[in-house]
Design brief:
Blueprint lengths: L1 E4 L4 H9 L4 H9 L24 H13 L4 E4 L4 H16 L5 E4 L12 H9 L4 E5 L6 H9 L3 E5 L13 E3 L15 H18 L15 H10 L6 H15 L5 H9 L9 H18 L3 H8 L3 H34 L3 E2 L5 E2 L4 E4 L8 H12 L3 E6 L8 E7 L6 H11 L4 E6 L3 E7 L3 H15 L8 E4 L10 H9 L11 E13 L3 E8 L2 E7 L9 E13 L2 E12 L1
Parallel strand pairs: 1-14, 2-3, 2-4, 4-5, 5-6, 9-10, 17-19
Antiparallel strand pairs: 7-8, 10-11, 11-13, 12-13, 15-16, 15-18, 16-17, 18-19
Length: about 575
């Protein structure tokens, strides 16, 4: 592991400070590309205009006509947190704007697989719907859209995933990543796309005289859901996404949120009045995702849709229980996957074992709902692109393996799968995804071919330097900033993918160290001559007396007393 410090342009720091930004924040923002205080303005008026997202005008007209004709609308969701929040935003928003008949359907991960498939389209048609609306899926559903159209359904696709070589023949496509779209925020989440469609629909309804600016529904009530789905989907937090998240957090902290969001904060033991992006990514998001992984995402969507506080708390408790089960399953899978990954190690010329350039593992006991999380853990452990496979539990498809992959910087996972597919025709039955996360299906008999082919592509495309994990940090932190109030200041800001949370690095003295719960390292350090406690979660190997650490600032509370501590992210020694 190598710890490197970000470049911090001193003139930009000075300019931000002169504009009134706190000196520590000025340094952090400048290192993340912020050049002027105006870029930190999170006002809704600065959101990218809806009509710059290609297809929103046509989608608005289609939906406005459907509402006027009292058509029955059915949303087809995805089974992750982005899909669940996008569905809840769609249902709530369409009802706010006058739609009287709005239902939803969420595919079953095991039985249906991902996206709008022909059988899903048949079920929507059989339900009596007139229009099918996808959220967080559909851009690759060529056959599913064709099946829906053949049954006489109007189809509106809202998605943010990368399109394949052929676009589906929907009535309207709204996706910032389709070839003809010039929308600046290519990383907007699926829930953000649906929110933009609703903004355009409200504008269209104003144009038709249904509302005016005084009587129109306030769609900002949906922003807590937009913020949650955006962070949970780990999309890049560009300026537009940061504004959406900041606006959602502001409402949650003020207590203005759906009953289900409040219930999820309670179930997770988090304080909504000081909500931050870590709560979305590591507390609420996993509880919603757990439903799609092990059970039925309908539970998650219903939790986000209900306005009954008692019902919301009941559903949140159920989601919390499913998430605990998910953690238990994940623990066993992770240990087995680590053993399988280590069996792939080769010995170099100096007798040192090293992992291959890419890792693919499969075990008959793996649960397909958890393979993505385990792939992420293996990727983090060995810093290699990783796929974890499980046997499909769908009836009649027991010989298919469903894999989920996670990548490292410098290796585009979907492009790598495309290359494997071209080199080994017929091995990949299905695949899709992004640069850093992707999924695929292979026949069990072809797993070894995939494993070797995927490793070969990684061997060719990954530079040697990319195989060494690097942690970018903000360098040393001045003693004057080692204060609890500044921890709170940092936590109030919007951090996440592409706008990394503040991480500092310095050489420290290790005074003492011990294992907690057999899997976490508790440390007492000396930093700049002063004692400080630290925790390194999911790390058990002891540290030398002096070591360079990468760490985040955190507040630990014990018996009502809050103390500063470090959360260790990595070490270089």
């Amino acid at each position: 592991m190598k710890i490197i410090a970000r470049e911090i342009p001193p003139r930009t720091v000075w300019a931000l400070e002169q504009a009134g930004v706190h000196p520590l924040l000025a340094r952090l923002f400048a290192a993340r590309g912020v050049r002027a205080k105006e870029e930190l303005d999170d006002g809704l008026a600065l959101l990218l205009p809806p009509d710059t997202l290609h297809g929103t005008r046509e989608a608005a007209a289609l939906l406005a006509d459907a509402i006027a004709q009292d058509k029955r609308l059915c949303i087809v969701a995805d089974y992750d947190c982005d899909g669940a929040t996008a569905c809840a935003v769609g249902v709530r928003g369409l009802r706010l704007l006058g739609a009287k008949n709005v239902s939803y359907l969420v595919p079953d991960r095991v039985v249906d697989g991902y996206g709008l498939t022909p059988p899903i389209a048949e079920r929507v048609a059989a339900s009596g719907a007139d229009m099918l609306i996808t959220v967080d899926n559909g851009i690759a559903s060529v056959e599913g859209v064709a099946a829906a159209k053949a049954r006489g359904l109007q189809v509106l696709v809202t998605d943010h995933h990368l399109p394949g070589p052929e676009l589906p023949a929907a009535d309207v496509l709204v996706n910032p990543n389709q070839p003809c779209c010039g929308f600046e925020s290519k990383s907007i989440a699926g829930v953000g796309v649906m929110f933009y469609v609703l903004l355009a629909l409200r504008s269209e309804l104003r144009r038709r005289g249904v509302f005016d600016t005084a009587t129109q529904p306030k769609l900002d009530a949906l922003l807590p859901l937009v913020a949650l789905g955006t962070v949970a989907d780990v999309v890049r937090l560009d300026a537009n996404n940061r504004r959406l998240v900041a606006q959602g957090l502001r409402r949650i902290r003020a207590g203005a949120m759906p009953a289900g969001v409040a219930a999820l904060f309670k179930a997770a033991g988090r304080n909504a009045s000081v909500a931050n992006t870590f709560d979305f990514g590591f507390a609420l998001g996993p509880r919603i995702n757990a439903a799609g992984r092990l059970s039925d995402m309908t539970l998650g969507i219903e939790c986000l849709l209900t306005d009954d506080a008692g019902r919301a708390e009941e559903l949140a408790r159920m989601l919390d229980g499913i998430n605990r089960e998910r953690r238990d399953i994940e623990g066993g899978m992770r240990d087995q996957a680590l053993l399988l990954a280590e069996s792939l190690f080769a010995t170099d010329g100096e007798g040192i074992e090293a992992p291959p350039p890419a890792i693919s593992v499969f075990d008959a006991g793996f649960h397909e709902g958890v393979v993505g999380i385990v792939a992420s853990r293996i990727k983090d452990r060995f810093h290699r692109p990783t796929f974890v496979f499980a046997a499909s539990a769908a009836p009649g498809k027991e010989q298919e393996l469903k894999g989920s992959g996670r990548s490292i910087p410098g290796f585009h996972l979907r492009d790598a799968l495309d290359l494997v597919a071209k080199r080994h025709p017929g091995v990949l039955l299905r695949f899709g995804g992004h640069a850093m996360a992707a999924g695929c299906t292979v026949a069990r008999e072809h797993f070894e071919t995939f494993e070797k082919g995927f490793a070969q592509v990684a061997r060719e495309l990954l530079a040697e330097s990319a195989l060494t994990r690097q942690i970018e940090t903000d360098g040393p932190i001045a003693r004057e900033y080692m204060r609890i109030d500044l921890v709170d200041t940092l936590h109030r800001e919007v951090w996440g993918q592409g706008f990394a949370p503040p991480t500092f690095s310095e050489e420290v003295e290790v005074v003492s160290q011990r294992l907690v719960g057999e899997k976490h390292l508790s440390l007492k350090l000396r930093h700049q001559g002063q004692p400080i406690d630290a925790m390194w979660f999911s790390h058990t190997e002891p540290l030398p007396p002096k070591v360079k650490l990468a760490f985040r600032l955190d507040a630990d509370e014990w018996q009502g007393v809050r103390r500063l501590r470090f959360l260790v992210e990595g070490a270089e020694f």
